[in-house]
């Protein structure tokens, strides 16, 4: 047995104390799982009450969210094959710009046509005017109504949008368009509370777009054809005038003329043709003016501005008279006054038309006199050219003029034939690759998942709030005095 002897400690020697000096706070201990579990146990009632309260506030919001269904269709946009092969080279012409066609799918006219075709303006989902505001929305509207006009959103943004604009905005928000890479394939998706409406909208957009696109295309072609018809008529008149000048010259062609006589004869023939053309146009204008003077309702081309103004004033007075007569009857005072004003305007218009007709008649007489003088000069020039025997040179010049005008006429007619061929073809063709079907499940998260997420978030928030309260209570709790310290804070030497 071994004895252990401990040497005696010197009397009066103090034991070394390595604890923290008095007055300093103890070092914080790390938060571990046991402490968190203890916190939950200690604050369980508070956590459950807060979680229930926050979950109760979230329940109306979650239940107010209605399920939305999304349907998608895939279409192929391309040009008609006949247009691609119109050159006859087999290589075809470039097809439509699919990027621009996608923008046309989004334009306002397409949206308005879709809204009218599907009756979206009668659905509460798309027309905010039909919605019954919820209590929070009604409270918010009341607060906004109490704001000054300069602070209200409608006042800052200008005029309030119309009901149709609101429906179009909701339609655009529900519509989704996605082009598949650089191909002509476009994915059309539509989201709605009604699964049938979602599928019908996705399928109908391609048809509505194609109809509007082709209508616009034909309207452009019709405008170009009308313009070409006017140009062709004017050009044909130029060809006829040049041909008439050539015939008139050939009737009196003779021997060669001295130097300079060929140019003079050609100038006279062209001037005579111009006078004939001017008289033909003037006769047409006189006939239109006479018809306008008879009916008072036809506006011929080239009509002076004052006559046009009188015609517009008469039409406005007549429309007002018809409206007043249907509303108040024929014996109403304002109806009588309007009828008298319309009669005065009609008389002024007829007087102006008569004056216009007389002016055109005098102009026609002046042109007839100029034509007679030109004929006389042309006859004299022909006589000189017949004696001189230089008709061939002038004939060649007039024939070249006829040929040049004829070439221009043929080019215009070829352009019209091209437009006639384009009018028979659609602007684009839409091929449905995959029609939209009625979705069976709503898109996004269900109400159960949203409610579970809301309860989870409320629980996490409640635990966090409980931890903050516990930390605040710990700071306010009085700290115990250090072990072995006097009232003056000096360490107490340990006794042996």
Unreliable segments (pLDDT under 50, ≥5 consecutive)?
Answer: 87-92, 484-496
How do the strands of the widest beta sheet line up side by side? 2-3-1-4
Topology as a string of helices (H) and strands (E):
HHEHHHHHHEEHHHHHEH
Query: How many angstroms does the end-to-end distance come to?
Result: 27 Å
Strand content bin: 5-15%
Describe the largest sheet: 4 strands, antiparallel
What's the mean pLDDT score?
76
Radius of gyration: 48 Å
Give the overall shape: elongated
Helix content: 55-70%
Could you say which structural class the secondary elements and strand pairing correspond to? mainly alpha
Count, helices:
14
State the domain count: 3
Number of strands: 4
Note down, in words, how this protein is organized.
The protein is mainly alpha-helical and 496 residues long. It has helices at 33-42, 44-64, 81-84, 98-106, 108-118, 135-146, 153-156, 163-174, 195-251, 261-295, 305-328, 333-388, 391-423, 447-476, and strands spanning 69-78, 175-179, 185-192, 429-434. The protein contains 14 helices and 4 strands. Strands 2-3-1-4 form a 4-stranded antiparallel beta sheet. The radius of gyration is 48 Å and the shape is elongated.
């Amino acid at each position: 047995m071994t004895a252990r002897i401990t040497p005696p400690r010197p009397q009066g020697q103090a034991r070394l104390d390595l604890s923290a000096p008095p007055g300093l706070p103890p070092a914080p201990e790390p938060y571990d799982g046991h402490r968190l579990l203890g916190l939950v146990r200690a604050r369980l009632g508070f956590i459950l009450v807060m979680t229930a309260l926050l979950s109760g506030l979230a329940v109306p919001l979650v239940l107010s969210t209605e399920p939305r269904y999304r349907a998608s269709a895939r279409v192929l946009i391309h040009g008609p094959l006949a247009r691609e092969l119109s050159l006859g080279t087999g290589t075809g012409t470039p097809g439509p710009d699919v990027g621009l066609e996608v923008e046309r799918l989004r334009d306002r006219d397409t949206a308005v046509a879709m809204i009218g075709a599907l009756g979206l303006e009668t659905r509460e989902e798309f027309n905010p005017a039909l919605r019954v505001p919820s209590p929070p929305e009604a409270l918010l509207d009341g607060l906004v109504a109490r704001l000054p006009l300069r602070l209200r959103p409608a006042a800052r943004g200008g005029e309030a949008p119309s009901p149709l604009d609101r429906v179009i905005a909701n339609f655009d928000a529900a519509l989704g368009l996605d082009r598949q890479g650089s191909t002509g394939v476009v994915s059309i998706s539509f989201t709605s509370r009604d699964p049938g409406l979602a599928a019908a909208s996705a399928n109908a957009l391609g048809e509505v777009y194609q109809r509007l696109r082709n209508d616009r295309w034909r309207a452009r072609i019709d405008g170009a054809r009308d313009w070409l018809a006017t140009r062709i008529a004017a050009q044909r008149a130029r060809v006829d005038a040049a041909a008439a000048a050539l015939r008139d010259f050939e009737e009196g062609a003779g021997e060669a003329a001295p130097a300079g006589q060929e140019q003079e004869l050609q100038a006279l023939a062209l001037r005579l043709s111009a006078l004939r053309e001017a008289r033909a146009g003037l006769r047409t204008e006189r006939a239109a003016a006479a018809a306008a003077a008879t009916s008072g309702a036809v506006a011929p081309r080239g009509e002076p501005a004052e006559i046009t103004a009188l015609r517009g004033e008469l039409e406005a007075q007549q429309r007002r008279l018809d409206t007043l007569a249907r509303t108040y009857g024929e014996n109403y005072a304002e109806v009588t006054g309007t009828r008298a004003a319309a009669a005065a305007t009609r008389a002024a218009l007829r007087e102006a038309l008569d004056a216009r007709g007389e002016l055109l008649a005098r102009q026609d007489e002046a042109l007839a006199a100029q034509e007679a003088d030109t004929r006389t000069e042309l006859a004299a020039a022909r006589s000189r050219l017949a004696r001189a025997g230089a008709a061939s040179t002038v004939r060649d010049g007039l024939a070249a003029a006829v040929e040049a005008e004829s070439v221009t006429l043929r080019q215009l007619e070829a352009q019209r034939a091209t437009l006639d061929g384009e009018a028979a073809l659609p602007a684009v063709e839409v091929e449905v690759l995959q029609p939209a079907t009625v979705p069976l499940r709503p898109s996004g998260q269900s109400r159960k998942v949203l409610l579970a997420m809301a309860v989870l978030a409320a629980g996490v928030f409640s635990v966090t709030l409980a931890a903050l309260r516990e930390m605040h209570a710990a700071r306010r709790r009085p700290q115990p005095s250090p072990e072995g310290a006097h009232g003056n804070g000096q360490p107490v030497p340990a006794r042996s």
